[in-house]
Write the structure tokens for this entry.
Amino acid sequence: MIPRWRTGGRLLLLTGWLTACSEPEPTPTPDAGPGEITDACNSREEALTLSECVLPLDNTPRQAYVSALYDSDWYRVEAVAPVTQPSIMRVRAGYAVPQTPVNLTLEANVPFTASRPTSRVNRHDPAQAPSFVEMLIPYVEDANFRLLTVRDDATAFDTQSQYTVQAELIADPDGHEPNNLPPSPTPIPLVATEQGTSGTITGVLATEGDVDVFGFQVPATAKSISVQLKAEAFTPALPFRFSYFLLDPSGGIVERKAALDPAAATDLGSTTTVSSEGRWQVWVQPAKALDQDFAMPGDLRSRYTLEVRLQP
């Protein structure tokens, strides 16, 4: 005879086993990550030819993954209507999740800088990842200058979270653009005053690698040139310090001034003895060392005033 407590134990074990077998399999949740990631737009050729690699300039967001080691996504930025005035492509990319191993990086070619035909710019913010990164690029018709790559700044990837990238077209606040090349400087109109001849003009260093080139005629009667560059203090501070170069008709740099504090108001000035008559130039640009070969960021707020005075 089997004791009842032993029989009861066997019945409880059998009941528990049957209950466990009858429970349904758990249903996967969205948090489990994507089952299969379609990885497109992996090259310059695909960006120039595939419709799924087009990023329209109407702020429409696109989402994708940095899904593998050394993964780079290429996009072709396209206007949705004819562009008839100097304009800027504002591109933003980033993750909405609070954490990701990816430090998202934007790269693009920026045309028409004073020092060389193109500049490869790279924007990322390791201190604030995964916050959004922004780039301001002059709009041009050549599709090669509207190619954008999105990647990690090293070798990280994320198959769980998508990044978002979007672009929009905005008006350039600098009415003198494009004036980044020395052969076609914006002329500074000079008028006679009691102290000599002077002219004033304004500009904005709005885009990546922006350099504003101005020109003015110096007669043989002029003995000295005074240059003054002013800008207000900005909050938050600009991502650069103002600077200017004064160039003589041969293209030689005869004066160079740079602000020290990006958070303070700018008031730079110099007086130079005239060495020769002809067309002189002033280049206004973000301050950087002469051997630093990279494009500085721009800022839509960065309006300045430039004054030139000629003394007889």
